[in-house]
Structures are given as C-alpha cells and as structure tokens.
Hints:
Keywords: Amino-acid biosynthesis, Aromatic amino acid biosynthesis, NADP, Oxidoreductase. By secondary structure, this protein is an alpha/beta fold.
Amino acid sequence: MMEKRISGTTGLxxxxxxxxxxxxxxxxxNYSFKKLEIDSAYVAFDISEEKVPDxxxxxxxxxxxxANVTMxxxxxxxxxxxxxxxxxxxxxxxxxxxxxxxxLTGHITDGVGFVRNLQEHGVGVKxxxxxxxGAGGAATAIEVQCALDGAKEINIFNIKDAFYEKAKETIExxxxxxxxxxxxxxxxxxxxxLTEKISESDILVNAxxxxxxxxxxxxxxxxTSNFRKGLAVADVVYNPKKTKFLEDxxxxxxxxxxxxxxxxxxxxxxxxxxxxxxxPTEEVNELYFK
Length: 290
C-alpha cells in the first residue's frame, strides 16, 4: 500500500548535523504532523560543518520550510541567516531555522525549552537568583534565555578553559541586551564561592555532562549541605533520567527538574515556529520520552 501522507504538495523539514542517525527528532515531528493533519514530512541529513553553505543553498533551492540544527553546525549556520532572534544573536548559535519564501530566520530554542520545563515543574525564573554549572552550548542558551525572561542574578561556574573565556563575551552581550540582570562568572574550583552562591540561589542548574551515562555515579556537586527545601535543582543530562545530582537534591527536599523535559519543550518551541501550532506534547512525551 502506498504511503498516502506524502504527496506532491508535502512540505519538507529536516535536521542537519553529524551524526544524526540516533536522533529522535524525525519520529517526534512526523508523529506531530500526522496527528495535526499537517501536510509535511521531516527527515535527517548528515551534514558536516564544511557542507553548511551547500545545505543552506539546498534549503532555498528545494524550499525546505524549516530545519533543526545540531552539532557541529549550530554556530556555522549563523552567518547565512537573514535574521536572528534576540537569543540566537546573543548566544551566537542557531538550532532552528525557519524559511519564509527564501528568507531564513535563525532561532535557538534550547533556553526556551529549559525555562518551559522549569515552569512545568512549578518553577519560574523571573526575579530569581540562578547558579549554573558549565559554560558550554547548553549553559549559554540557558543563561541567555533566563536573562531575557527576567532573572535577577545569574552566577556561572566553569573551570578556566576556552568555554570560560567565551562566557566572558556572552556576559558582555547579555549586559548590552538585558542590563538589569546581574551576571557573574566564577571559577568552578573556588568551592567556597560555589557553596556561598548556592546558598543564595533559588535555582541550581547542572549544564555539564557530569553524571551522564556511563558515569552516572558522578555529581558536579560534592558538598550538598546547601541543598534544601525551596531550592529548585535542574539537570540538562537526560540519560539517566534521574542523575546522582538530582537524587542528592531530592533527598534534601529540593524541587528536582530532569533534563528530558528540556528536550521535549525545545522541540515543541521549534514546532510552533514552523507551524504556528502547539505540538501534541502529552502524546509525544508518552511515546518518545517516557
């Protein structure tokens, strides 16, 4: 029996990056298109960084309506965009491209996904003090979105490496766009400062890979004496679903927020940018994220 869903009018969306063979995005978006009866399909293309200019030309030639961008292409696509969302401009990376008749707009939905995931657990960022561990891609998207959404203070802790230096630039950009938000960069090795900032914080975020499978016995925080009721603790790691970091926090009475929801909600935000509609997140969550 022929696939009825694909026709001569079917719109095409895609994922670009490398590797993409393991990605859950095609299943998530195709299920949503089918469920909402949208005449579109979603496929993954393995694209290396040096092939980005070719891919961008292909979007325009084939009228690919939109694309998600994963590593290593998130920064490489930026200079080919006609327009950038405020968050994408500050972060200097794009994970969602919308093609409107050949005009490409670049967005970054990771931070939106993170903030929405917090909201789903009853935690808001407006007026809050937040401590973030890490200064890589996920951390950058999170701190920028939290600043845009009205966080009062953000403390970034990272070891003194290339990411630490890049975080300095990001902070300068945040100061220009959101001068009311206080952003501090601190050395992760300064445990006294870290303990002090956690004690003052409303939200603590692990945006490093510490605790990810197969190293699930590790946690980025050794001294959990400041874990307490009233502190929300979030992890971007989603394998395992409950990291040691979150287990320790839960044992201390903190509100815990796992990383899998960030993945779901950043996808839902991209879907909304593509279609103007809400992704059927409950069903998608049941099918692909449980």
